[in-house]
């Protein structure tokens, strides 16, 4: 038998999933780790807690599967993107908590960039100048750390997104590398030239000596040190979580779109071999591609997707577990006029309103917690629909047609949410049999590099549909609901009046 192991390091938990060659899950291990919020808009992780939790899941998944380490043919890594970390090359110790992709502390820095500098960033990287991405986070760390800039220039420090951190730990410091997908999220990477951009390194004053090498997503990265698992294992694939999910969904042709429902929601559309800019407020990014087939995607990000359900659980105490939200919403037929805009850390594409904060509108004396839960769930579908509509506009200018949305991630298993999504889109929503497509994509990338698979056509043939959701709302109803949502967003983004 052939087995592939995927390390899936996410924003709120670390997981390891073992797949067989057909893409079936053999074992799954998961461990949550803490989130830290030292100030409003600041979000941090302890990198050693990430590593410890990931190593635990590695060992636990192998125990569950009752497989010897040597039965694993290859390892793939997928990770939360943009989260930024600096560590000491000599000791391997992080020098500051990781700044999470949700962290907004560099908003003022981004706003201070001149129009010409912002245009440079957009034209070279496909991204907007936003705290979401890694460059300003890295600049903040180098300014904050004692002698940070000097030590970086001297080659004493290493920067990485979480993939680089895990590779460093797994190989015991022998490999400092990243892939094109994660590099493309740093705001330091040239989409055209596929390397670290010297103009942007100069703009942010980032020393070359700090940076990891860049490799293909499907490539040999080195071996996991035998001391961690008893035997060494070869790492053959690395990709940021959303590009890995696009790959796992077999979206290999232009016009194919997937949406991952996790802590946030991330929608990507394959646009082929040219990094075309978006006219609708989206960003352009590298896809998880093989060396022979580089591709690009348009992406829109919802900062708070499934996290709104965690908020209901942890802050409001409305539900005991995330799985209970569906049963709570079954007590009502709709949101009762309530609309929630969960802009806890600002609004991403296509609004790009980092100063926005969450709001709940339309509350009456008859509003119950079930209505609020329904509105929270519906907010995920509203935000994703706004992204999809922008993608359809961009697809039209590129001569591409979009006729369905492939979905994955934990919240995609919520039937009520998926029906809401189909209703608001006016198109079918397709859920595959394997919704762990982020990890599956990492496993597939590793399998291609290791020779387990011949080409992507073999992966396309393995992709199978579990359920289709068809829209039930009329065009008029759908347009009215989206108009109500956009009105709520405008109210949320209004500046606070003086009292």
Characteristics:
499 residues, alpha+beta, 7-stranded mixed β-sheet, 6-stranded mixed β-sheet, 35% helix, globular, Carb_kinase_FGGY_CS, nucleotide-binding, Glycerol kinase
Structural summary, described in words:
The protein has 499 residues and is α+β, with helices and mostly antiparallel strands. Helix 13 crosses helix 14 (415-425). It has a 7-stranded mixed beta sheet with strand order 17-18-16-15-21-22-23, sandwiched between helices. Strands 3-2-1-5-14-13 form a 6-stranded mixed beta sheet, with helices on both faces. A two-stranded antiparallel sheet has the order 4-7. The mean pLDDT is 90. It has helices at 47-65, 107-112, 115-125, 134-144, 148-153, 162-170, 180-183, 198-204, 226-229, 241-248, 307-314, 325-329, 369-397, 415-425, 437-450, 456-462, 475-492; strands spanning 3-9, 13-20, 25-32, 44-45, 72-79, 85-88, 98-99, 157-160, 177-179, 189-190, 195-196, 213-215, 218-224, 233-240, 257-261, 265-272, 283-286, 296-302, 339-341, 359-361, 404-408, 428-432, 465-469. The chain is globular, with a radius of gyration of 22 Å.
